[in-house]
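Reviewers of the previous submission asked for a worked example of the structure-prediction workflow described in the proposal, so we include one complete record here. The input consisted solely of the amino acid sequence. No template or homolog information was supplied to the procedure at any stage.
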Amino acid sequence: MPFINRIKRPWLLLAVSAVLLTVVIVIAGLRAWALLNSPLALPGSVIFDVPAGSSLGTVSDELAAQGWLETPLLFKLWSRYSGHAGRLQAGEYELEPALTPVQLLEKLVAGDVKQYQLTLVEGWTFTQALETIQSSPGIAVTLGGLSAEEIAERLAFHYANPEGQLFPDTYFYTRGTTDAEILSRAHRRLLAILEEVWAQRLGVLPLDSPYQALILASIVEKETAVAAERPQIAGVFIRRLEQNMRLQSDPTVIYGMGERYNGNIDRAALNEVTPYNTYRINGLPPTPIALSGREAIIASVNPDAGAALYFVARGDGSHQFSATLDEHNAAVRRYQLGENVQ
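From that input alone, the workflow returned the following structure tokens.
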């Protein structure tokens, strides 16, 4: 028996040691997993930049140097174990306080970089849109000092004058996106929508091309902010074109005045001959006068049927429409001059 006990005792010690080692490994693993799933030590929402070509070690060390990652070695080990060590993507990342090392790694591998946004507004001119784009955070300006026409040529815009050739919308981008990229995206979007809407036009119109529809849409866009009125406004202008009447649109006069416009249109401005003064020229002006939204473009090729040839602002944002000049003059006296017209 003593001989047998001496034989069994080493095996017992080995078994106990193996169990203890397993327990230690499990506890260490659980502890490591808990650390990997505990929030980073962030002071709040922070921006973290990963330059192109950054290694896992560089990223881990920088996070640790900032005091955000308390276990850089564990982060490196987990990255290698999960097969993500060489898959980090460069970019600017927004890190939120609840983010864990595991989630951070997933974010870096997915390239879930910070998104910026800018909005181009209906009725803006190309100059206003360009200024907004170039002054937006994270945009790399590459077209500084170029004229509007030079920009249109460089970016191969469909028409030589870039006015009205951008679609007003909200555009998302990442840091380092160029002004040229945003302009090209907005231009392509405009062309796609214009082509789509032009193909769905109803009836015969006094418009020879999608570009003429875009010109008319820009005038409609500037004439009213009331969505329901856009087809009515377009209908007035379509009928005036059909009857060879001048459009007599104040926004075209204002556009033709350029920086000289001070908020008022006087008799001299109405009589001034410019390519855009539709009180003095026949038909449409040579280019759009502003950015047109989808609804204004749709209205320009699908105008309301009716007899109205005139409209005047009521003073509340809406307009009074009239079929005859006498009716229009009465509406002007009532809404513009404040006369009590029955």
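Residues 2-36 form the longest helix (35 residues). We consider this example representative of the routine output the project will generate in years two and three.
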